[in-house]
Amino acid sequence: MSASRTERLLNLLIALLNTKYGLRRSELREKVYHDTTSSDVAFGRMFERDKGELRQFGFDVEAVTDTGWGSDDPATTRYRIGKESNRLPDVSLTPEECTVLILAAQLWEHAALGSAAVDAVRKLQAAGGLVDAELPTGVQPRIRPAGQAFEDLVAAIHAQHPVRFSYLAGSTGQEQERLVEPWGLGSRFGQWYLVGHDRGRGDKRFFRLSRLTSAVTVLEKESFTPPAGFNVRAELAGLAELPVQSAVVDVEHGRLLGLRKRAQPLPDAAPDARTPGHSAGTDRLAVPFRDAETLGEELASYGPRVTVISPPELAGAVHRRLTAAAEFADRPLPDVAFPAAGRAGRTRKRTSEDQLKRMLQLVPFLVHNQGLHISEVAARFGITRKALEDDLRILICSGLPEGYPDDLLDIQWDDDHVFITQALDLTRPVRFTVDEACALLTGLETLNSLPEVAEGGALESVTLKLMAAAGEEGVKAAALSGPEVAPGNSAVLDTARAALESGAQLHLRYFSAQRDAVSERDVDPLRLYSLDNTWYLEAYCHSAQGLRNFRLDRIEALEPNGRRAAATAKPADSFPVKLFTPNDDDTVVVVELAPRGTGLADDYYAERTAALPGGGMLAEIRFGSTDWLPMFVAQHGGMVRILQPEALAAASREWLAAALTQYEAFPDRPID
Description:
Elements: H1 3-17, E1 23-24, H2 25-31, H3 40-56, E2 62-64, E3 78-80, H4 95-106, H5 114-126, H6 147-159, E4 163-168, E5 175-188, E6 191-198, E7 203-208, E8 217-218, H7 232-237, E9 245-252, H8 257-262, E10 264-265, E11 282-289, H9 292-301, E12 306-310, H10 312-329, H11 352-368, E13 372-373, H12 374-380, H13 385-396, E14 410-412, E15 417-422, H14 434-446, H15 451-454, H16 458-470, H17 472-475, E16 480-481, H18 490-502, E17 504-512, E18 517-531, E19 534-541, E20 546-551, E21 555-564, E22 587-593, H19 600-603, E23 608-611, E24 617-623, H20 629-635, E25 640-644, H21 646-664
Helix pairs in contact: 1-11, 4-5, 4-14, 4-16, 5-11, 5-14, 9-10, 9-20, 10-21, 14-16, 20-21
């Protein structure tokens, strides 16, 4: 969608909003489109596409037909947009409700619904419904969706398009292609599930996203109708948790302390073809687990330091990931080239859609925030000053068809302070899209698992207000359900929160999975936040002499040490918090991400990205420690490989080869 099309759609919107009786197609063709060359059929197709675009932005184009003779003649049909039906209703929020709403919006961060949450909040700001609010100490949860598949499935659910993907069935261990009508997406037992109608099996099925073995293909030319009143949370509530099983593994002596904490030793067994005796230098352990894929992902990351003896499906899960990672690592290398600066982002079909959506938010925002500096306006919308000025130049050239100067949008920024004096009925934000409604309402529902937020009436009242404002789009939010975000260890969280409030320094004993070691440290706590129900303490570590992030579930002991925290240490950035702090001695690593793994660029805060043919991506990421990168590659089984530095790439290939050798030693044991 070119800039000229953006301008045309904006002019069409203004014309249809500002007509009382409607405009005929011939009038629109002459006065808005200035079309004198195309055929009636070609123009009709263009007009229908434009109406569809406006509908996606929340504007329903109404066709008004004259009664009587000739009423079915398309030439007599008039078109208009109701001024009230497409506008966001007034929403007045208290400071307490604003706090809860901001927490809900921030849950998504940069994930699939992150931009939708930002857009929804911006609409409320433009309407004057938000007031200043302060986030509570220690309550900054976030949701980490399941990568690119999550984003593709959310889009398909809202557009009601079927999807196709390859899936590894838990019951049979077989990989098959599935054609599914996606009804809803939700989190249960720490895993994301798709609920939908499996066309091949003719029935409702549950699909765990971690078992998808291919990218999701959305069949945009097909559609379906979901069941009336569908609620994914209610569907998942009836899903039984898998029973606990026991895995037998051989673990390198003195290694993998985290795994050992969950395991039990086993006596030596006589070697045979199926259950070989463990070799010297290893310990045989029994590890409880519920799902082979979940444990398989962890064990694959340990590479040659662990060998699965039983059950066969767990060995298969590990072997499959290692094989996929090794095959990806051996592919021909792509050319490594990044944009001159910044991130390339993921490819989009029509990037100018973002521009038009932004401009429709920009006009009401300026109406309610007269005189802001242009740099502040650009910062509020997350764009450069140049991009903002490009938007403003299109806006000031837009207005009523063949109108006078007073019939154009009037925006001035000559002194770098932006004023708008003519808004042409664009003064109120457009109603929430389904993505925006889902982002806020699902976020609010997720906060119910946090007692600090759920107590009191603010969460319930703001939910009711947004449901009323969202209307029909809010009902569709039932197709999405977030995970539990309450911490697993509330005692550690309470101790950390109390230290934050009192300014006390803390002493902790901490297990580092990357270093496979336990250390003791004195830290100045700065803030608490979470990814799903995994909570982190950001603190200044006196041993490392820098900011560090500690997982609460890996803190083995935590208590005040009797000293005051230093007032000089400050959090690294504004929320959302990064899981690491860049340093000058970090190693810059270039990785290639397969289409299913492009979300890792966001998870690890890539500094530069570049799209690759076929949907993959190059990413440049900083790592403070590189020793664990072979584990990182093995864990993600064919979704990521290291390209540069070559020494790290070689180490990763050696790690994978050594791990695979252990499974080749037992050829008669079933792997897949």
